[in-house]
Design a protein that fits this description.
The protein contains 10 helices and 15 strands. It is α+β, with helices and mostly antiparallel strands.
Length: 503
């Protein structure tokens, strides 16, 4: 039995109206459902397997690449000439990070210590840890600057100590020794006669404090009552602020611990975080939108003001004593050692710094740091943080090992820490936090489009029915007119034939 057009029209009308109503409801309710799903997945909660595992154990590839600046002309530097360096590396280390001592509190915060361990990856490196490089002897040239204001007699005694321990202004060691430490009798001696002054104890190595260590006790908000503060630091080692710097603003502990951020970012958002290694809070700014492995991201980069001096950027005055823009003095939290951090090759720094050392070539691609962030969840998809360690060296009267060194901030090394979400974690993340919300968002438009199509179909059927009805009426009228004509014309013809016969 065929279905009548009237029933089809009614059916399409009902389906269309329901689809439009449901789609319209989704326009208003859909974003709330999506946001609720995101909130449940990004708050720090052991019940959220995906996000909690990512936060606790960081199950993604993470690497540290170290580049050393091998000094080519140590004797000429001692004579007052410009230093010449060549970059060696990268020496790549896989990095394992995990959180321990995790404790949740009633005020919706959680405390933890994050540990880190490094493993050399020779297959990813250019060279191995047995490679030999020459760098300034931090124990001599660094200590000389630290002691330049002591009485000259003391400085001469220190110089004699350097000589007796056969410590010169430059050292040539293997990469492994410079990274993880080598025995120094002089270091033990200095720690004995000048307790607390030296930043190293036992072995001397620039990454001695990194391996098998933690970054301090962080207490952060879980976001369970306010997702806008999730991952934000409440305190570090029990402190609400540090006391390394000269202004309240510079001493503030802002942002997160530098791994995840609150969700629902816009292009006006920034990425503030506290770095224990830099002893300060830092902030990245939005640069552009893009995609990372099929996931939409915002790229955040370091602004030029990050390490600007107080003259170029007044809010940084509290980080002084300042030198050229592009340098941050960290001696205030490193036993007053003359150590500065910057971006690699003095990228984004005062050009004068690059001109004091031969062998540098700063550029954004190789030396700019960035974080590619999925804006809806606050989860980094691709991270590349790059920093350079520099040592201030100069002639110090009374210490013969410093020769006639012209005052210069000499790069020692730079390192980049990089990580990206990949493998099963990426698939799960993309499905739960990207594809499903996207499908939910598109469903509202699909239902509205479907509803409007049904309504248009209903109107078309209705018009078709009216046209057919009108056409049927016209045909019936013409049939009636045709019948009347035949009746009228019949007698006339008969009469003509009768007349003809009569005649």
């Amino acid at each position: 039995m065929a279905v009548s057009k009237s029933k089809i029209t009614i059916g399409l009308s009902v389906v269309g109206a329901l689809a439009v109503v449901f789609g319209t409801i989704l326009v208003f309710v859909g974003p709330l459902i999506i946001d609720d799903q995101i909130i449940k997945n990004v708050e720090i909660n052991p019940k959220n397997t995906l996000s909690y595992t990512m936060w606790k154990d960081i199950p993604v590839p993470f690497f540290m690449s170290v580049y050393w600046f091998n000094v080519l002309n140590p004797e000429e530097i001692l004579a007052g000439e410009k230093p010449m360096v060549e970059q060696r590396g990268p020496y790549v280390y896989s990095e394992k990070r995990w959180k321990d001592n995790i404790t949740f509190y009633d005020n919706k915060t959680v405390s933890y210590r994050e540990y880190r361990r490094y493993f050399f990856e020779e297959s990813m490196s250019v060279g191995n840890e047995s490679d030999v490089v020459t760098i300034p002897n931090v124990l001599v040239l660094g200590a000389s600057v630290m002691m330049e204001f002591l009485p000259v007699q003391v400085r001469r005694m220190i110089s004699s100590t350097f000589t007796s321990f056969k410590e010169g202004p430059f050292v040539t060691k293997t990469v492994g020794e410079l990274m993880w430490g080598y025995e120094s009798k002089m270091l033990n001696f200095l720690n004995t006669i000048l307790p607390g002054m030296m930043p190293f104890k036992g072995k001397f190595g620039l990454f001695v404090e990194f391996n098998n260590s933690n970054t301090g006790l962080f207490t952060v908000f879980t976001g369970q009552d306010n997702i806008r503060v999730v991952h934000k630091v409440d305190s570090w080692n029990g402190l609400k602020k540090v006391n390394y710097w000269k202004s309240e603003q510079c001493n503030m502990i802002n942002g997160t611990a530098g791994q995840m951020w609150p969700p629902f970012m816009t292009t006006e958002s920034t990425l503030p975080f506290y770095s224990p290694d830099a002893c300060r809070s830092m902030e990245l700014v939005y640069q552009r939108s893009g995609t990372s492995q099929g996931v939409p991201v915002y790229r955040f980069v370091a602004p030029k003001t990050l390490f600007a001096n107080g003259s170029d950027y007044p809010p940084n005055e509290g980080f002084c004593p300042c030198r050229e823009s592009g340098l941050l003095y960290v001696g205030t939290c490193r036993h007053n050692s003359p150590v500065y951090i910057s971006q690699p090759h003095f990228y984004n720094a005062d050009p004068a710094l690059m001109h004091t050392v031969n062998g540098l070539n700063p550029n954004e691609h190789d030396h700019g740091l960035f974080i590619d962030m999925h804006p809806n969840t606050g989860v980094p998809m691709n991270v590349s943080i790059k920093l350079q360690l520099n040592l201030l060296i100069k002639q110090v009267l009374g210490i013969s090992q410093t020769g006639k060194i012209n005052e210069v901030v000499l790069p020692l090394l730079w390192f980049g820490e990089s990580g990206y979400i990949d493998g099963p974690v990426l698939k799960t993340f993309r499905m739960n936090l990207v594809i499903l919300p996207m499908v939910m968002e598109y469903m509202q438009y699909i239902f509205i489009a479907l509803g409007l199509s049904c309504i248009i179909g209903t109107v078309a059927l209705h018009l078709s029915k009216k046209i057919e009805k009108k056409q049927g009426t016209v045909d019936l009228t013409e049939d009636k007119r045709g019948s009347n004509t035949d009746i009228n014309h019949g007698p006339a013809h008969s009469e003509k034939y009768i007349e003809k016969d009569t005649n």
